[in-house]
Amino acid sequence: MLSSRRSWKCAAALAWLLLLCLSPGLAAAQVAAATDGAGLGHSVHLRGPWLAAPGDNPRWASADYDDSKWTVLPPRVPLPASFGQARSLWFRLHLHVPPHTPSVALYVESLPFNYSVYVNGVNIGGQGEVDPDRATQLHPPVGFPVPPRLIDDAGGRLVVALHVSGGPIGFLGYSPMSEDTHLELVNPEEVPLRQSFRLAHDWGESLALLAFNLLVGLCGLVIWWSLREQREYLALAVWLLCNALSIVLNFWAHMAGATPGSPLALTLVLVMSFSSVAELEFMRLLLKRPQNTLWLSLEAIAFFVNFFIPLLETGRLPLHLAVSLVFIRPLITEIFVGLVLLRGALRGNRDAPLLLLPMALWSVSDVYGIVRTIVFFASDVLWPDLPKVHVFSYTVEFATVATTVALFSLILIILRRTIRLSRERADLAAEVAAAEELQLLLMARASRPTPGYQVSTEYRPMQQVGGDFFLVQPCEEDGSLVVIVGDVSGKGLQAAMRVSMILGVLQREVMGQPDRVLGKLNRALLAQGDLGFTTACCLRLEADGSFCFANAGHLNPYLDGDELASEGALPLGMAEETSYTVLCGRMDRGQRIVLLSDGVVEARSRKGEMFGFDRTRDLVRMDASAMADVAQRFGQEDDITVLTLSLA
Amino acid sequence: MQASTKVAERTATGGSGDPVAILAFTGDISSTSKDTILDSYKGLGATAAKVLLDFRGVDYINSSGIAIIIQLLLEANKAGHRTIGIFGLTPHFNKVFTMVGVAKYATISPDEATALGKL
Fold this sequence. Notes:
Chain A is α+β, with helices and mostly antiparallel strands. Helix content of chain A is 45%, strand content 19%. Chain A is built from 16 helices and 22 strands. In chain A, strands 3-2-4-9-6-7 form a six-stranded antiparallel sheet. Chain A is elongated and about 130 Å long. By secondary structure, chain B is α/β, with parallel strands linked by helices. Chain B has one domain (6-117): Transcription Regulator spoIIAA (2-Layer Sandwich), CATH 3.30.750. Chain B has helices at residues 34-42, 63-79, 91-99, 112-117, and strands at 6-13, 19-29, 50-61, 83-87, 107-109. In chain B, helix 1 runs parallel beside helix 2 (63-79). Chain B is globular. Chain B starts with 5 loop residues before the first strand and ends with a helix. Classes of the chains: A alpha+beta, B alpha/beta. Chain A binds chain B through residues 487, 489-490, 532-533, 535, 551, 553-556, 566-571, 574-575, 578, 598, 601, 610, 612-613, and chain B through 62-64, 66-67, 70-71, 74, 92, 95-96, 98-104.
């Protein structure tokens, strides 16, 4: 013998089935069979067929209303053409629920209009403001508890009525009872789980796109931070990060039920506008097109046209005009940019071909959408949608495939550019290494054996190669020694190249009196053109200790710690009529002359304090290597050269 | 990190009673300062016969910056109708300017009053 509990289940199930067969006004409606006293044992899809009528009448919610003349809507069938322009529709469904069912909820999912739900004439809930003039949006899934007394009072016979507004609801043949819309009777305890699942499912595609846009956008931002002159990476970052932000704002607006015209909706439009402009700017910079009136005009249109979207959603614009305005932006972007990409590809731009495929896919999607809409307006004939990709329960739209291809293309572009940049940097490093080797070779040649004299040099470039130079040239004829220490303005490879040229000039010329040496060098630099600022001090020392020197804007030499002051003269390469005053003196055996570059004087500590002339005066009693060490430790900011000279 | 160069223009009266245009520099002077400095100098107009360069607000001048000042002085010297004075240099840059021969093309003074007195 069955337990009383199980007997009740079976009896209820049988009664349910009988009632399904006998109930008037139903065509092929599904009904639920209560399974236990805790409520429905399983959900019941309310697929219909529903009964539908355009217009609005509060009496249509009542259980007693005679809806026998209403239009029967089979499941997943577009609305009749006569409903196409309706902005208010009612749907009714007759069903049976076992009496005394303690708890049941009407679960509504993916209904993209404002609506109110009635059970036997009683409003049990809704979403949005049901008003034909109000804008609509896709609401989050929600469950509306059905008061048990409604079930009990009606003996389990229910009429579910749905009032839907907005639209026009039947635009492009859409039906609220589409395959995406779910209306079910469920156990109220299941509602939170269903909501979570539906949100995760519906927004899974968006979440993936969000992650993709964020990742590639951040990559672009990081690369631009390192290569500020390549502004296409900044444009790319703004474009994709705005896309990511728009997905977040869209989700927020969806959950908050934000209406068009609300601050959140307007913020979303603003972000989309920036995204549109950044996209165009990225394409322009990538293809190295100049910023001209045409591009500025297109970017202005792309920015402002997005602000018509809220007007479209409120339904305040004539439909034809609203749809035309929305289609302007993709037409501009895809047709114009597509042509520019094609031109770039034909002219050898290596990045353009990678973007042609996604642009072509976007164009197909948008152009087909435009043509489909025009055909529907003109003839009420609805062309099929573009193919979709079904992955388990997910449906991936054609446009999403295009977006995914575009993001992969952008990743490829970034990867390829990064590899190319690494190669260029490696090549540059090799060139700098070669320049360093050449400079060391030239410096070595500049230091020849100096019988009768003791010369020590110390050279510490700031970078791998530097702008300081020196030359030590003994004169075999009279046993004198000519030394020159100089400094080319700037640092690095460019300064090193100038140094190579200067040393070449100096080594070709027969060394004479210091002022003539500087004069020759000045004329050589002026003949080369604008080579910047070069200072030099040239000193000639005789075997008997007498010396003469001339200075072209360089630091004065020191004799045993005392500065040999000179008149001051323009640096080399600045003016033709420059004359260099020659000063003479005498040094004894045991004394030492020091020439150095401003890298010693202008060394700067971490606190910003300069080494200065006073400290330099104290320093010049050390040997060359020690002097360079002290200046370097203090805080090297420029190339350091120290040359000491004494009689052997 | 170098601070960008800013130039402020004002006028004063020299020791001779003639008007003197003063260009006051602030920040660091380097190769990036070229347009700012030369545009300010060229903007003085042909009637500014006496010009003072005020370096009190300058923190640092590198070799490229010195080259810009020299270029300005050479242009004035070539034009022949303009007298230029300099004041407000730190002792370090006073010495550097003397080394590079600026004193041949402009007077160098410790303060504005002394500089105006020479014009």
